[in-house]
Amino acid sequence: MQVNFNKMKNFDISLYLVTDLELSKDRSLEYIVEEAAKGGVTLVQLREKNISTREFYELAKSLMAILKPLNIPLIINDRIDIALAVDADGLHIGQSDLPYAVARRLMGYEKIIGLSVENIQQARDANNLDVDYIGLSPVFSTNTKLDINTPLELAGIKEIASFTKHKTVAIGGINSSNAESIIASGADGIAVVSAIVSHENPKQAALHLKSLVTNAK
Amino acid sequence: MQVNFNKMKNFDISLYLVTDLELSKDRSLEYIVEEAAKGGVTLVQLREKNISTREFYELAKSLMAILKPLNIPLIINDRIDIALAVDADGLHIGQSDLPYAVARRLMGYEKIIGLSVENIQQARDANNLDVDYIGLSPVFSTNTKLDINTPLELAGIKEIASFTKHKTVAIGGINSSNAESIIASGADGIAVVSAIVSHENPKQAALHLKSLVTNAK
Questions:
Q1: Binary contact (B84, A106; C-beta < 8 A)
Q2: Does the interface predicted TM-score (ipTM) exceed 0.95?
Q3: How far apart (Å, rounded) are the C-alpha atoms in residues B194 and B211?
Q4: B chain contacts of residue A106, beta-carbon cutoff 8 Å
Q5: Apex B85 CA angle, B83 and B86, nearest 5
């Protein structure tokens, strides 16, 4: 007998912030995240590649302290060790991270696990997994990630939205000029990096994106 | 009431191999480790910094399959997620990895945890921790690690050996020309990277180092 824990996870994926210290213009992640939370982000993913494990852990602890009282889930990119160490709300894995089954075994069924899919076939395959959401990546081309695949474009979002059983969040090159079109194409949410972390006013940026997403729904 | 699990961990730290794919001269880690095991290495640490989590996981699985039947413990560097995913025998952490207390909580008391100490003070501090061994790093200068501190030299090994309550393994610039002097200075074992992984005959290299360590004890 298996309990469907997914039903217990009632998280809002509509405005999903992904961190990047290198794009934060010398402002602390704590500042960016706190401001973005005031502006209405509904989920935060800590994704950092060029810092030590200790620094990653310290950042994750700080962000948990900020987000927990606000009931905004913190998702850790790739590193289950960090997610377990700070008891984060979830984990995000890509196709070159640990296999989903291993991630689920270590994280447990009560945690959110999201998986990046980079093409239609991976999105189809994800229908066989009890992930909590899929990240559609990249929608548009972007300079944030180095190893990106062919952009899915709005047509890819529409196609995936037509068959996936999962919540979807689109990522890659999303900003206030195209946010509405992403939601109109069927994604449940937008994930942004530079549109918030590089913005001179992260709170204002989040507020604006949030209103665009809400209007488009 | 606390059980002293350390007493149950009867591992031999005398010849400790640390991997480095980039120094392996296009030979697979599986080949290097299998040959080194035939030559008598007593412990293997998987330490790789420039590969994806998935590749790290696959390597860890392969090495477990080779080492488990030989009763040679596999220790994972830094990444508790990988250690947990493959049920490795232990974890090695440095001063910029997760704090020891967090690592122990996640790994459990039955696993081996080793900690690198880079100076006398850190070795003294480690006497307050129930780590299973300490790595003395670096003994000599080396090109294997980029961010090395001042070498401890043989005098540092002698001093630490005089007060530490832990098993010790020295690392950094160790090869057949200085292995005996390390043991003679009081270390319980030597850890090597290039002296085995870059050697044209890893089995022969391990056999020779093993005989030097055995003779020096």
A1: yes
A2: no
A3: 18
A4: 81, 84-85
A5: 70
User: Does the distance separating the beta carbons of B106 and A54 come in below 8 Å?
Assistant: no
Q: List CB contacts (< 8 A) between A79 and chain B.
A: 53, 81
Q: Please state the domain count of chain B.
A: 1
CA distance A55 to chain B (A): 8
For residues A149 and A117, the answer to whether their CB atoms sit within 8 Å is no
CB contact under 8 A, A80 and B84: yes
Does residue B72 sit in helix, strand or coil?
coil
Is the Cβ–Cβ distance between B80 and B103 less than 8 Å?
A: yes
Put simply, the answer to whether A81 touches B85 (Cβ < 8 Å) is: no
Cβ atoms within 10 Å of B202's Cβ, excluding its own: 25
Question: pLDDT truncated to tens, each residue of chain A (217 aa)?
Answer: 445 554 468 899 999 999 999 999 999 999 999 999 999 999 999 999 899 999 999 999 999 999 999 999 999 999 999 999 999 999 999 999 999 999 999 999 999 999 999 999 999 999 999 999 999 999 998 765 555 678 999 999 999 999 999 999 999 999 999 999 999 999 999 999 999 999 999 999 999 999 999 999 8
**CATH code, A174:** 3.20.20.70
Q: How distant, in Å, are the alpha carbons of A41, A213, B150, B178 from that of A191?
A: 10, 11, 45, 55
Q: Which residues of A touch B84 (CB under 8 A)?
A: 80-81, 106
The answer to whether the CB atoms of B106 and A97 lie below 8 A apart is no
Residue B157, domain extent: 5-216
Count contacts between A and B (CB, < 8 Å). Answer: 56
Q: What is the pTM of this model?
A: 0.93
